[in-house]
C-alpha cells in the first residue's frame, strides 16, 4: 500500500508572511510607504539624528499637503496644526510625549503615525494593561539559555523600550495609566537618566540619540493608576481634543470609512455622506446634551460616543448595505449599530435614547426614514 505524502502547507507563522502578503492591517510605515518615501526624497530640511524625516516633513505627513512636485500627502490627523507641531517638536528634544484625551480622539493613531514618520518603525510597542509586567518595559530572560549558560547578553530578551534606546528609535507605550504604578516607575530612570541598568550583568543600555518615547493615556482612566508626579514631569503632555465642529467630524468619519472600506474590499459607497451626517449629528447632540440648534436640552447616555465609534457604526452599516442591501447606505443599515453604540446600559440608556427619538428625531421633517428605522430596532 502506498501512502501519498501531501506537501505540508506553508506555515506563515514560522516562516514569516511574505512581504506584501494580505495582512489585515498593515503598519502605518507600510500602508503609507509611498508617501513617506516621497517626503524623504524631497525633504531638504535638517533632520535630528536618526530621524527619517525633518520635523517639518513629519508634521506634513500627519496633516497632509502637496509637495513642490505635486505629490499629494493625505492628512492622517484632522485637527489643530499647532497640536501636531508641538508634538513633533517635543520628540525633537529629549523629552517624552504623552498624548492625552477622551476615548477615540486618535491618540493611538497619532502615536503610530508619528513613530512611522520619525523612525520608520511603529512596532516598538508596549501595550499597557493592569497586568503589564516590568519586563515589558525593561527586559526579560530566555529561561532555557539562562539555565544552560547563566545570565549573559544572549539570554537577555530586550523589551521594545530597550530596543528603541539601543537603536535610537521611537518606543510607544499604549494606555500608560492602566499600568500598575510600580511598573510605570520603571520608566522614570529611562526618561531621566536615558539608561536602563542590567544589574544581573553589571551593565547598562544607554539610549543613543534618536531615542524617543510616545505614551498615550485615556482621560477617563485617570485615577485607575494616576501617573505619579515624578513620571508626569518627564513628559510633555499634548491633549487631543474632540473634533471642533460637526463638519470636521463628518470629514474625519468619511475619510476613515472610505479607507477602511477599501481595505476590506467593500464596494465603494456612492453617497454615504447623508447618513454619516446623521450619525455624527446624533453622536454630537447626545454627547453635548443639547440639540445642534441649541434649543432642546438632552440627557447624555453613559457611553462615550466617540468619533471612533461613529466610524465603526458607519463601517458596519456599509457592510450591511453592500452584502444585504442594494449597496447604498440607508438609515436602516445604521440604525442597529447606532442603537448598540448609544445603549450601553440597557436600562438607563434605553430611556435616554427613546426620549431622544420621540422628542428630537421624530420632529425632524427629513428624518422620517431614520425615525422609522430606529423605532424598528429599538422595539
Ligand atoms: N481628529 C482625527 N483625525 C483623524 N482620525 C481620527 C480623528 N479622531 C478620531 N480619528 C479616528 O478614530 C479612530 C480611533 O482612534 P484611536 O484608536 O487612535 O483613538 P484613541 O484616542 O487611541 O482611543 P482610546 O482612548 O479608546 O484608545 C482612528 O481610526 C482614527 O483615524
Ligand atoms: Mg488608544
UniProtKB/TrEMBL annotation:
<dbReference type="InterPro" id="IPR011704">
    <property type="entry name" value="ATPase_dyneun-rel_AAA"/>
</dbReference>
<dbReference type="GO" id="GO:0005524">
    <property type="term" value="F:ATP binding"/>
</dbReference>
<dbReference type="InterPro" id="IPR027417">
    <property type="entry name" value="P-loop_NTPase"/>
</dbReference>
<protein>
    <submittedName>
        <fullName>AAA family ATPase</fullName>
    </submittedName>
</protein>
<dbReference type="InterPro" id="IPR050764">
    <property type="entry name" value="CbbQ/NirQ/NorQ/GpvN"/>
</dbReference>
<feature type="domain" description="ATPase dynein-related AAA">
    <location>
        <begin position="97"/>
        <end position="235"/>
    </location>
</feature>
<dbReference type="Pfam" id="PF07728">
    <property type="entry name" value="AAA_5"/>
</dbReference>
<dbReference type="GO" id="GO:0016887">
    <property type="term" value="F:ATP hydrolysis activity"/>
</dbReference>
Amino acid at each position: 500500500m502506498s501512502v501519498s505524502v501531501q506537501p505540508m502547507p506553508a506555515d506563515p507563522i514560522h516562516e514569516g508572511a511574505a512581504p506584501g502578503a494580505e495582512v489585515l492591517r498593515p503598519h502605518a510605515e507600510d500602508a503609507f510607504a509611498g508617501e513617506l518615501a516621497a517626503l524623504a526624497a524631497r525633504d531638504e530640511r535638517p533632520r535630528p539624528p536618526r530621524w527619517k524625516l525633518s520635523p517639518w516633513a513629519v508634521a506634513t505627513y500627519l496633516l497632509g499637503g502637496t509637495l513642490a512636485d505635486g505629490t499629494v500627502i493625505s492628512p492622517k490627523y484632522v485637527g489643530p496644526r499647532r497640536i501636531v507641531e508641538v508634538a513633533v517638536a517635543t520628540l525633537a528634544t529629549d523629552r517624552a510625549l504623552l498624548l492625552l484625551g477622551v476615548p477615540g480622539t486618535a491618540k493611538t493613531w497619532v502615536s503610530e503615525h508619528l513613530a512611522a514618520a520619525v523612525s520608520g518603525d511603529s512596532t516598538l510597542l508596549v501595550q499597557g494593561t493592569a497586568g503589564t509586567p516590568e519586563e515589558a518595559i525593561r527586559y526579560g530572560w530566555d529561561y532555557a539559555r539562562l539555565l544552560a549558560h547563566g545570565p549573559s547578553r544572549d539570554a537577555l530578551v530586550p523589551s521594545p523600550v530597550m530596543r528603541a534606546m539601543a537603536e535610537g528609535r521611537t518606543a510607544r507605550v499604549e494606555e500608560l495609566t492602566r499600568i500598575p504604578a510600580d511598573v510605570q516607575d520603571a520608566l522614570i530612570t529611562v526618561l531621566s537618566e536615558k539608561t536602563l541598568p542590567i544589574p544581573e550583568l553589571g551593565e547598562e543600555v544607554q539610549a543613543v540619540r534618536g531615542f524617543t518615547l510616545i505614551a498615550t493615556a485615556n482621560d477617563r482612566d485617570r485615577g485607575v493608576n494616576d501617573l505619579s508626579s515624578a513620571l508626569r514631569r518627564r513628559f510633555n503632555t499634548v491633549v487631543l481634543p474632540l473634533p471642533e465642529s460637526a463638519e470636521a467630524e463628518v470629514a474625519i468619519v468619511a475619510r476613515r470609512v472610505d479607507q477602511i472600506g477599501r481595505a476590506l474590499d467593500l464596494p465603494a459607497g456612492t453617497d454615504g455622506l447623508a447618513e454619516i451626517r446623521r450619525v455624527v449629528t446624533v453622536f454630537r447632540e447626545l454627547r453635548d446634551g443639547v440639540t445642534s440648534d441649541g434649543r432642546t436640552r438632552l440627557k447624555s447616555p453613559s457611553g462615550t460616543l466617540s468619533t471612533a465609534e461613529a466610524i465603526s457604526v458607519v463601517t458596519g452599516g456599509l457592510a450591511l448595505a453592500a452584502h444585504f442591501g442594494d449597496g447604498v447606505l440607508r438609515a436602516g443599515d445604521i440604525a442597529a449599530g447606532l442603537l448598540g453604540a448609544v445603549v450601553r446600559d440597557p436600562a438607563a440608556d434605553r430611556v435616554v435614547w427613546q426620549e431622544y427619538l420621540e422628542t428630537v428625531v421624530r420632529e425632524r421633517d427629513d428624518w422620517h426614514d431614520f425615525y422609522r428605522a430606529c423605532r424598528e430596532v429599538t422595539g
